[in-house]
Amino acid sequence: MIRSICALVLSAFVASAFAQTVAPAMPAELQPISAAFSAGDFERAADLAEALVEAQPEHARGWQWLARANAQQALRAGLFGKASLAGKCREAYERSVAIDPAHAETQFELHQFYVQAPGIIGGGEDKSRAQAAVLAKLDASYGHLAAGMVADRFDEDPAAAEREYRAAVAAGGVNPGRARNALANWLIAKERWDDARAVWTAVLAQNPDDGVALFMTGRLAALSGQALDAGLAALDRYLALETKPQDIGIAPAHWRRGLVLEKLGRVEEAVGAITAAVAADPKFELAQKDLARLK
Question: How far apart are alpha carbons 45 and 76 in whole angstroms?
Fold first, then answer.
């Protein structure tokens, strides 16, 4: 029960980590944390973030990064570790928003936790609705996203959810990439592959080197088994980028590329790609399992 709950909760953070197309300038004290996070060393990222908030207890972004690192560690932890780290993740997010309640991004990440997590680990419907109301006052895009998640999860109203997600994309706001990602992931969950692909095709029409859109196009091909050649080309282009989105990095792209190659029947190349993923992140359990399966 706890294992499935934590997997569900933490999947939201993995998806949200890929959302921001253009990262703002990062304060110097956060750069080592971000670098460790991007390298897949989430234990070091958590240690650095914890040291930062111990030295500066009112550093809101330090608490946010600690929450993110705890979430990623939980994905790789055992059963009891998942539950413990999920709780630490929530606590860190709540501390961050208490220090800086006007920071919409952190408020939204906390909202994601509340939506996905049951009361036993600190989430639930009442908290989710209250948090959605907070977000509606901070940023129109985040507010629509939060309303969409509530409509989908608690009201079971997919039409209302889609309206809210598309309104979030149209609103722009402080992080339009996150709105696009949320809409695309919602469409993927409904297996509306063409509609999900259209989200990223529109981005690439404006910027063919948009790293998030390239990665997500490849990810979609791996998930759907459709448009495989286009997905492979997108991942190849992504890996060739000089600068990649800090929260995606290299390992997930190699892994998704391997899955696309497998679906194309190019199994030997798939093994090579997934081997590269494991080399880039030795703790990447999903890639390790696929590598064992294909060898």
Answer: 14
Rounded to an integer, what distance in angstroms lies between the CA atom of residue 97 and that of residue 260? Answer: 39
pLDDT tens digits for range 212-255? 999 999 999 999 999 999 999 999 999 999 999 877 889 999 99
**Position 76 pLDDT exceeds 80:** no
- Would you tell me the crossing angle of helices 176-189 and 158-171 to the nearest 10 degrees? 160
Query: Which of these ranges, 17-31, 134-148, 159-173, has the smallest mean pLDDT?
Result: 17-31
Instruction: Please give the structure tokens belonging to residue 226.
Output: 């459709």
Give the CA count within 13 Å in the CB-facing half-sphere of 247: 19
List the domains of the chain with CATH numbers.
Answer: 191-288 (1.25.40.10)
CB hemisphere CA count around 239 (13 angstroms): 19
- At position 66, the amino acid (one-letter code) is L
Contact 47, 63 (CB under 8 A): no
